[in-house]
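dude i think i finally got it to work??
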Amino acid sequence: MVRKANVIFVSMLLASVILPQALVVARDNPKVPPIAGGWTQSRSPTPEDLAVWDKVITQVDSDLASMGQPVEVSSQVVSGIKYNFIFSNGDQVSVYSVPWEQKLEVSEVKKSTK
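look at this
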């Protein structure tokens, strides 16, 4: 009886935590298997990614608007979502978002050495 309960619990955990992120990775690049808790491969920004970037430049740091729109993004689900926005000149901006706590912060700005 305990074993059956453990199997059900693990199945529910996998379905609720890992499956949603796996579906995002599969949608964006069906040839790459998902890594639970890992960073997604760089991809073209989705409308949802661009909405996060727009909030960054309007609510957190308007000076970053001069970088333009990101051309690539990767993300990682943690206790929120980490984004790594990449721009056409190679610059990168790392952002941490916890929407259910209205938390949005810029973690790092890396200027390209190109």
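The first strand starts at residue 72 and ends at 77.
im so relieved honestly
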